[in-house]
Amino acid sequence: MEKKKDIKSMTLPQLTEELTALGEKPFRAKQMYQWMHQKLADGFGAMTNLPGRLREECAQRYSYTALKPVRVRESAIDGTKKFLFELADGNVVESVWMRYKHGNSVCISSQVGCRMGCRFCASTLGGLERSLWPSEMLDQVYAVQKMTGERISNVVVMGIGEPLDNYGNLLTFLGILTDENGLHISQRSVTVSTCGIVPEMRRLAEEKLQITLALSLHGTTDDKRRRLMPIANQYSIDDLMKACAYYFKQTGRRITFEYSLVGGVNDTDEDAEQLAALARPLSCHVNLIPVNPVRERKYVSPPGERVRAFQAKLERHKVNATVRREMGRDIEGACGQLRRELLGG
Ligand code: SAH
């Protein structure tokens, strides 16, 4: 059976081309696009200002993705909500909704599983199943906005998967997400987090988007980084820093460093000093994440005073550093944990 084309993954020009080939006027494509990406319609049936025969023809020709919520958990501590969604093929991904002072944020997955193998991360334990389509990334944002009934203002691609290992689909997703005929989320309100695939970081720089790029650094020497992240065997810190400088030069956007603090592994004063030396020249913001213990892994989070001392050391070296609020800890808020639980991991 031939696979039907996925209509929600089409950009407006692509959809226009499709529908004009069927003999429709271009404005029909725009109407349909707005139904999908602005009014968040559940299917062609909801598109009441489009002719019935067009809706029927589209239903025959195209697939219309939808997510099935299989589990929703709300944190009693901070109201964070974690969603487990089933995709059309039965795979599951996680999304997390967080309320901040400046607006609501959703953290979405970019792949089913991950092949990057970071040692402290639950998402990678079962390897990579497949990458997500643009529609499946959009659907997470749309479903969460509809289910919470509140407008989403920030999107972070920091859930399951490595977004730059799904580059083409990520770019299409970003285009539709920030499009004025869609939810029109500002590029500046979107963050993409990567474990550091250097060629793709450079490619992204050349797109000249205004999104924030977050680099998961976690170690300040090649040796230390390799202990936590297999990707460090491929790209050196030197190459990473050059790619960050290039991103900043091309886009004018400062990079964020993510640094998961692991007790006894990367949390000494010396680590903080080395981290400051990397962050200073690039004016990076550092986001410290006390490591979330994962059952299958032996890593532990440093004591609170060590975290604060680490942050203070960075600040003393004039590096802006925040400690990530641990949201949703009571609901398995860390990457990939809820999916693992469902899979019986
Ligand atoms: N693959 C991308 C995005 C997904 S992970 C990346 O590597 O950036 C999002 C962030 O959470 C990364 O910084 C990742 O290293 C971190 N992370 C994953 N598991 C964690 C855990 N158990 N504790 C703390 N941070 C974790």
Description:
- This protein is an alpha/beta fold and 345 residues long.
- The protein has 2 domains: 5-63, DNA polymerase, domain 1, CATH 1.10.150; 68-342, Alpha-Beta Barrel (TIM Barrel), CATH 3.20.20.
- It contains 11 helices and 14 strands.
- It has helices spanning 12-21, 26-37, 52-61, 134-148, 167-177, 198-207, 222-228, 237-251, 269-279, 304-316, 337-343, and strands at 5-6, 62-63, 68-74, 81-86, 92-100, 103-107, 111-113, 128-131, 154-157, 190-194, 212-216, 256-261, 285-290, 321-323.
- The protein has a 10-stranded mixed β-sheet with strand order 3-4-5-6-9-10-11-12-13-14, covered by helices on one side. It has a two-stranded parallel sheet with strand order 1-2.
- Strand 12 (256-261), helix 9 and strand 13 form a beta-alpha-beta unit.
- The longest helix is centred in the middle third of the chain and has 15 residues, at 134-148.
- The radius of gyration is 21 Å and the shape is globular.
- The chain starts with a strand and ends with a helix.
- The structure holds S-adenosyl-L-homocysteine (SAH).
- S-adenosyl-L-homocysteine binds at residues 116, 118, 120-121, 158, 162, 193-195, 216, 258, 260, 289, 291-292, 294, 334-335.
